Amino acid sequence: MEAKHCLLCGQVMIERDVDGTMRRACPDCTYVHWGNYSVGVGALVKKEGKLLLVRRAQNPGKGYWTNPGGYIEQLEPIGETVCREVLEETGVRATVRSVVAIRDLPRAIHNLYIAFAMDYVEGEPVADGLEVDAAGFFSLEEMETMNVAPFTRWLADVAAGDESGEGLQIDTDPVVPLNGLGLFRLQTK
Ligand SMILES: [Zn+2]
């Protein structure tokens, strides 16, 4: 599917050379259709060595156990999105510690998934009954007999090895003023 009309002004789009590549672009304003992308965020919330998982009640992935998460919203910082998804799906409050894994899935809609190590704050897992129909904390051993989605199993391995608390952490005090940006970086001692 090619973009026919400009998303900003509604003009019929044309093919235009943008820095050496032909792209769908608007002849009247600055809009360029760069491609189709989506970004997902996922939460790795650990409590006493066990990982928070939910069982998907809807497709895609109905019946599979996964970590909580969802797609980002246009104007919501990703750290807030992942906290909100955990709370909505399970009733558990958790805060972002660091970014610990990324999955790249280049396809018709190019998907990027960012996994966050989260610090458990409070709440017993209760499924929302809509997106997910079960929720709980599970060890790697318990996961062996559960229908865990393969990618979630990979993330569980990431979470299991993350005892250091390292990864890309929120930079609340950047060395130069960068107002309005969400910044995640390696901490340098
Ligand atoms: Zn336009």
TrEMBL record:
Alphabetical keyword list: Hydrolase
Transmembrane segments: none
Highest taxon of the lineage: Bacteria
GO molecular function: hydrolase activity
Gene3D superfamilies in the cross-refs: Nucleoside Triphosphate Pyrophosphohydrolase
Keyword RNA-binding: no
Location of the Nudix hydrolase domain: 34-161
Statement: the UniProt record of this protein carries the keyword Thylakoid: no
InterPro entries the record matches: NUDIX_hydrolase-like_dom_sf, NUDIX_hydrolase_CS, NUDIX_hydrolase_dom
Coiled-coil features, chain-numbered ranges: none
Name the UniProt record assigns to this protein: NUDIX hydrolase
